[in-house]
Amino acid sequence: MLGETVTDPEEITGTVKWFDPVKGFGFIIDDRGGPDILLHANVLRNFGQGSIADHAQIRVRVQVTPRGAQAVEVLEIAPPEGETLAPIEDLGENTPDEIAALPLEPARVKWFEKAKGFGFANVFERDEDVFIHMEVLRRSGFADLSPGEAVCLRVIEGKRGRMAAQVLAWDASLKSGR
To answer: How many Å apart are CA 133 and CA 165, to the nearest integer?
Structure first.
């Protein structure tokens, strides 16, 4: 519209205040302060995720419009920091570095029920399902998963079979160069 100014996108780092995949949006708090930044579900999906955990760290390109600041591109997401994390028994003694060294396995979510706290995914070219625990999902920076959603998993052999130790956006292997 005439007379309305839009700024060039600027890169910022912040924290997810909240995100509701049902409503299709949420807000980011800029680490430097200022007004909340709108994060639309389409921008998050363009990054390869359908949800994001509250308090996750996020790096985005932001554009200021007459309607306010809004993220136009997600560049990076890191799980919530600074929370006391209880150990997940099924992960055993694996350290974060050992988990990060595991290969990425592309998978598609079979089903996930947040209320139950778990779900399953099918790794491409493998017959058995991979168990996904809600706490692993949250620590990976996700709030929820949808059936059919494409993800990358780092998988361990748990007491009851294959289990996700980390969940990443489907194109994580391209971004990490692996």
So the answer is: 9
